[in-house]
Structure formats: C-alpha cells, structure tokens
TrEMBL record:
Domain CYTH residue range list: 1-208
Listed name of the protein: Inorganic triphosphatase
InterPro entries: CHAD_dom (IPR007899), CHAD_dom_sf (IPR038186), CYTH-like_dom_sf (IPR033469), CYTH_domain (IPR023577), YgiF (IPR039013)
Family annotation (Gene3D superfamilies): CHAD domain, Hypothetical Protein Pfu-838710-001
Residues of the CHAD domain: 223-510
Amino acid sequence: MERELKLELLQDRVEPLLGLPLLSSSRVKPPHRDRLVSTYFDTPDLDFRRAHASLRVRQAGKHFVQTLKTAGTQHGGVYEREEYEHAISGSTPDLSALRDEVPEGTALGMLLRDGALAGCLSPIFITDVERTVMRLRLRQGDEVELAVDRGVIRANGATAPIRELELEIQAGQPAQLSALALQLLDVMPMRLSRASKGDHGYALVVDEPDVVVRAQPLKLADDDSTEAAFLRIARNCLAQISGNERCVIHGINPEGVHQMRVGLRRLRSALDLFRPLLACPPALEAELRWIADQLGPARDWEVLATSTLPDAFSDAPEDVGADAVVAAAEAVSAHDRQVAAHAVDSERYTRLILTLSHWLASAGWRQDAGEAQRVELAAPVRAFARTILRKRQRKLLKRGRGMAKLDEHKRHRARIAAKKLRYATAFFDALLPAKKAGRYREHLGHLQDDLGWLNDMTVAQTLLRRLAAGRRKLATGCGYARGSIAGRVGADKEELRCLWKRFKAASLPA
C-alpha cells in the first residue's frame, strides 16, 4: 500500500526548499537527481482508466520499471492506493508479472487476464520530469522520502506542466506526512495536489467532467470503539469534502459546491456530536467555519436562481420582468462560485486540510483527554450511539413543539436539531435495526426536507431584498417573487403539521 502526500508547487525555484535546515538536518544522505521518462499505456477504449488504474513504464537511464497503480482513495492531499512495481527488460509492459499479484476476481484482475489485452496496448501519454529525491529521518524516527518533480506531460501534441512535491512514508506513522508538509508550507507557497500525473495525462487525452462526490455509506461495527467510530465518520466526511475540491475550483458544476458544503456540515456535526469526549482545537473549528462561509453564498444564490425563482414565476404575467430577476440572480451565483473556487484553491485552505488531516491521523485530542474520557473513547460505540440519538431526539421534540405555528427563529432552531439528528442517524445507521431505522429515517427525512425548503424560502426573501436594492428595474419582479414565496410558505403549514405528527409517532430505532 502506497501512502503519499502530494502538493503542487507555486514557483519553479525549489533550491530554497531543498536547502532548508529542517531538511538538511534530517536527511539520511545528500539528495540526488534523475531524469524520469514515463510512458503510460492503455487500450483504445481506455480500459485501464475505466478500471480506475494506470499502467506505466518508467525509464531511468538504461533501466525500465513497470508500475500499475489503482486509484485508491484520496483525501486531505494523502493518496492511499495499491501499487505493483517490477523491473522489466524493455520499454513495453510485461503483463505476466502483474497477473501473479493482482487478485483474479477483481475488475482489474480480469482485465489483466484478457488474452487479447497485450496486443491492444499502446502509448497514451508521456511524462518527462527531473526528480530530486531526498531520504529523511525525522526526529521521531519516522522515515520519509521527499521528491520534487519538475517537468511536462505530453499527449496528442498538447502539454501540461508538472511542479510537484511528494512526501511518501517509508517507515513510521503517516501522520508525519501532514506534520512535515505544514512545516514546509511555512516557507514555500504550495497548494494541495488534487490529481495524480496519470489524471493530468488522461485529461489531455479525453474530456472527463469533474465528478461530484456524495457521502458514501458508513460501515461501523458493534465492536468498534467510540474513538474508532469517530475516525471512520470524520474520514468519511473528509473524503466527501476533498472529493469535490476539483469540481468547486473549476466552477462549472454548482452541485460540487453543494456536496462539499454538505461534507463540511456533516463533519462539523460529527465534531459537535463527539464533543463530550474529544475537543477539536478552536483554531481548526474557526477555519472550518471560514471555508463553510466561503461556500454558502454560492449555494444560496444557486438555489434561488435555479429552483426558487422558476417556481415563484411559474404563473407570472409577462410584464413582471421575471427573466431579468433570474439573470441577475444567476450572475451573483456565478460570481460567488468564483469566490468559493478561489478559497478552495488557496494556501489557507491547504493549511486547513493539512491541519485537519494531521489532527485526525495523530489523534490530537488524546493529549487533553482525562482518564474518564479515555475509558469512554475505548468503549464500544453502540452505547454512545444510543445515548446521543436519544439526546438529539429529545432536543428536536422540545424545539418542535407546535411546529406549524413556530416563528422563523424558532423554526430555524428546530431545523438545526432535525438536521443534526438526521446526520447522527446516518452516521450510526449500521448499528441500528434495519427495518425500524428505515421507517424512522423516512419520516425524519421528509420533515427535515420540508424544514430545509422553508429555510430556503426565508433565505430567498433576504436575497431578493438585496437584489432589488438600488435596482429599480428589478423591483417589480423581486416584489412579485417575494409575494409568491410568502403564499407558498403559508400554504405549507398543513403539510408541515402532518409531517411533524408522523415523525413524533415514529419510534427511535436505537
């Protein structure tokens, strides 16, 4: 299993980095440089790419090394993936060596055992880099390989630059990768690398849309400790956050902003849920709030432009000026997506994710935990889950009394309680009886969705007032939309009352 952290250098000069006392005092031997030319192979149908893998033959001098890598997982800048590497005699792949190592029952294993595969392979793109490598032994005894790559990717007459720093754990704890990266970030401008060299190369070959990443199911077991469960949940949230970075930065698909924001909300909810047993550093929580605030406006304006306004104007007269209002909202949404993109592509965001990754990997909460907290963290998670779900249930029932008659402020508090309960139920879903949990989630989900819609309507009223301010041409259309929204909110009271009644009748499956 390969574990490496990849960062993108923002300047060509790396001598100041390589000459740092931090590195020179830790290196096992002087750095060395090599020219590495790697040819990536695939079929005309890009079968390796579709199997989430890459196959390359790298030449260094007179030597050839074949490497097959799986996509694995990537979060917080850290890649964890399977790697199969062999010295071979020439510049074309030798599949026989790979068939002995890759499991036969996997999609990749079946591809490698296709007798016609070797005849279909051809070069797809080439990476040509100068690599400077330094072996480090850190103060704690961990060993890390630091590599700086500068060069180019070539495919179909197109090129893309390579300026990367890779930190790969050789011996010791992966947590040291993010700790070292944070120290290097103090002296060298860098940002997270969100794509491998293979990803960049394939991007020159085929137009691949950015993938929107949604929350993946969590697999907790009854005998998981409470601490282990927290780590699984937090890393699941981080994977959703990290998985949508490229989508947000490219600013084309607004769903990426939404899903990254959902990942942040889930993570912050998890931190709140486990707060009695472990405390997130206040500075880290403040940075999580910062990036959430950078994403929020883009999502709010996107909902207004693409959902709320089309519904509000569905029966509007032609002279209301609906198109102008929608166009103005879309323009603000596009601007705010760029603000979000700039934030996610910033050094500040890189520092945030590295800090979060290090805190999780090093279990940074242990140093401040008392004996009682340590005992609870080591205990099976099931009892903790039951206690938390009951507390969240009681809070929602208390805040939601007379739900259909609540004012905006109190309804907002009830919505937050419903959202936190829904996240907690999803986190611990694998520990709950499936049939009862399914019915409960359905009723809770319908309630929370309606409360979320009502919150969108409240936000829309604020945004429409802001949109009309100082723009006389939009005043009529904004006024019409606000009236339409108010009417729809009023008509929803009976639906909200029924949803609340059904939820109260559902029993907590804990």
